[in-house]
């Protein structure tokens, strides 16, 4: 029942938190940074070879949160829609960086309900040479059933979510983009 403005603000905060935790899971190397005052600081730098993939359309809500943290990260897209009667997911579009098979993938999909859409997305990534062990699913809300379905199909995938609850707010995309 919140206003769209409050909804988007809160969603963006959750997105940022889950994106930052996903980035914490990526490999990095130590480096020395010289600050503007000339002091040396021992910091870290992400290793090359990371990318995001958003499952359209609701996954696109997470892209800005990722770009806010990693300005030049490459982002692929995949469009999957589920048949409302059978709940079978079908891939309609997929566009990834050409060398995605060499990259760690942050798969963005905010609402994980049955898990069918994510399973299809991972299958497409695997067809493009991506190993499930380098895929980190970034989700805001997940049902226990959805998470279990994905782990049963792809036990090596990492799932990060802010909440696991039997009821998922499936209206997320409509509310976020103002099409409800």
Structure description:
InterPro entries: PRTase-like, PRTase_dom. Keywords: Cytoplasm, Glycosyltransferase, GTP-binding, Nucleotide-binding, Nucleus, Transferase. One of its GO terms (molecular function) is GTP binding. With 180 residues, this protein is an alpha/beta fold. It has a single domain, classed as Rossmann fold (3-Layer(aba) Sandwich), CATH 3.40.50.2020. It is 31% helix and 31% strand. The chain is built from 5 helices and 11 strands. The strands form 3 sheets. The protein has a 6-stranded mixed β-sheet with strand order 5-4-3-6-8-10, sandwiched between helices. The protein has a 3-stranded parallel β-sheet with strand order 7-9-11. It has a two-stranded antiparallel sheet with strand order 1-2. α1 packs across α2. It starts with a helix and ends with a helix.
Per DSSP, the total helix count is 5
β-sheet strand percentage: 25-35%
Low-confidence stretches: none
- What characterizes the major β-sheet? 6 strands, mixed
The end-to-end span amounts to 12 Å
Mean pLDDT: 91
Fraction of residues in helix? 25-40%
Largest beta sheet: what is the strand line-up? 5-4-3-6-8-10
CATH class: Alpha Beta
Tertiary shape? globular
């Amino acid at each position: 029942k919140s206003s769209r403005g409050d909804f988007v603000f809160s969603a963006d905060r959750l997105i940022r938190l889950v994106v930052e935790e996903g980035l914490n899971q990526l490999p990095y190397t130590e480096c020395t940074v010289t600050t503007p005052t000339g002091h040396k600081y021992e910091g870290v730098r992400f290793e090359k070879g990371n990318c995001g993939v958003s499952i359209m359309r609701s996954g696109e809500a997470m892209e800005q949160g990722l770009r806010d943290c990693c300005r030049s990260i490459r982002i692929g897209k995949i469009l999957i829609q589920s048949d409302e009667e059978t709940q079978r997911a079908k891939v309609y579009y997929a566009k990834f960086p050409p060398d995605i098979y060499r990259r760690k993938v942050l798969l963005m999909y905010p609402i994980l309900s049955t898990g069918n859409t994510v399973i299809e997305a991972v299958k497409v990534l695997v067809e493009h040479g991506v190993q499930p062990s380098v895929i980190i699913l970034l989700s805001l809300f997940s049902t226990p059933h959805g998470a279990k379905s994905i782990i049963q199909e792809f036990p090596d995938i990492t799932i990060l979510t802010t909440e696991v609850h039997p009821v998922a707010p499936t209206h997320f995309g409509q509310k976020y983009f103002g099409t409800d």
